[in-house]
Design a protein that fits this description.
The protein has 318 residues and is of the alpha+beta class. Helix content is 35%, strand content 11%. Strands 1-8-9 form a three-stranded antiparallel beta sheet, with no helix packed on it. A two-stranded antiparallel ribbon has the order 2-3. Strand 2 and strand 3 form a beta hairpin. It is globular. The two termini are 41 Å apart. The model has no long low-confidence stretch (mean pLDDT 94).
């Protein structure tokens, strides 16, 4: 069996992840779907299981809050956070709700009904359009957008881009994540969907869950121009080539893709982009991207007023 995995790139990716407490990384070809590296950290030594693992050793692995027994790259299900804003942007552009010339003002929050939804930037971003909202990851812009687009269209675009799905991959432990909508909530909880849930879903929070592999596929389908690429690992079995047909087109408007990709380029390469500090300055090696931070614990009014910082919290609730 010949895999798509590049052994040296896999080793390098795994080594780089060791600087984190818990992390995963996927490198895949956006056109072919070949997975070159698929790493999860921390991991465990499979030799532990040869001849039977001791109870104490297994309990140590099982109770570790960094989940070394889970292959996070394909089985870790997390709120995608602001990486999901590309989905909301494409859903809004596809629905004709916004264009490049559509601006909204961000004062640092968005009021809807009796609720106030905060932007990550306390003082706000001022006037932004879809490109600068992606560049600076303005929550308020997407809050407002979501109330006009609706959860049905947002969920449909998410599924077109590969979220909420499993792929025909040889690793059976992959998970499907979750793309919620009105029908899902009615079936799961026998409750109606609320507008506020659309607002938080628009920035990849709430019930929304994705695996790192799904986010890699989502990104690939955007930057390859809307081809339904799927990830794969097995290239040859003996002398037999594992053939794959041409990827179907998911029907993204090229002009919409160009706007989102311009925003992704600015995230990294523009002065006010949220990943400007991580840019590659080597000519010809520049990259685009999208930052995302998921809130896993509700911030109370008292904590917000007291200025409680993320680094002050216990690791598992950061």
């Amino acid at each position: 069996v010949v895999l798509s995995i590049d052994a040296e790139l896999q080793r390098f990716a795994q080594q780089r992840l060791e600087s984190e407490k818990s992390a995963s990384a996927i490198v895949m070809d956006v056109h072919t779907g070949e997975v070159y590296a698929l790493a999860s950290y921390p991991a465990f030594d499979p030799n532990y299981f040869i001849g039977g693992i001791s109870h104490d050793r297994y309990e140590e692995l099982r109770s570790d809050i960094t989940l070394p027994l889970s292959n996070k790259a394909i089985a870790g299900q997390y709120p995608p956070g602001s990486t999901f804003k590309m989905v909301t942007a494409l859903a809004a552009l596809d629905a004709g709700v916004v264009s490049e010339g559509t601006y909204a003002f961000c004062p640092g929050h968005y009021d809807f009904g009796n609720g106030r939804f905060h932007c990550w930037k306390k003082g706000g971003h001022g006037s932004v359009n879809v490109v600068t909202a992606l560049q600076e990851s303005c929550d308020t812009y997407f809050y407002k957008l979501s109330t006009e687009v609706g959860i049905k269209r947002i969920a449909a675009m998410a599924k077109r881009l590969g979220l909420g799905n499993t792929f025909e991959l040889e690793l059976k432990e992959q998970r499907s994540g979750l793309v919620p909508d009105e029908a899902w909530k009615r079936k799961k909880y026998d409750q109606p969907w609320h507008p506020g849930e659309t607002i938080i879903a628009s920035i990849g929070q709430g019930y929304m869950l994705a695996t790192p592999l799904q986010l890699a596929v989502m990104t690939a389908r955007i930057v390859n121009g809307g081809k339904a690429v799927n990830p794969w690992l097995v290239g040859h079995i003996g002398d037999k080539v594992v053939t794959r047909g041409a990827w179907e087109d998911i029907g993204l408007n090229p002009k919409h893709v160009e706007l989102v990709m311009r925003g992704m380029n600015n995230v990294v390469n523009a002065q006010r982009g949220t990943a400007h500090g991580s840019r590659i300055t080597e000519p010809g090696m520049e990259m685009g991207g999208k930052t995302g931070t998921a809130q896993v614990k509700r911030i109370t009014k008292q904590e917000r007023a007291a200025g409680v910082k993320n680094q002050d919290l216990a690791w598992q609730v950061r």
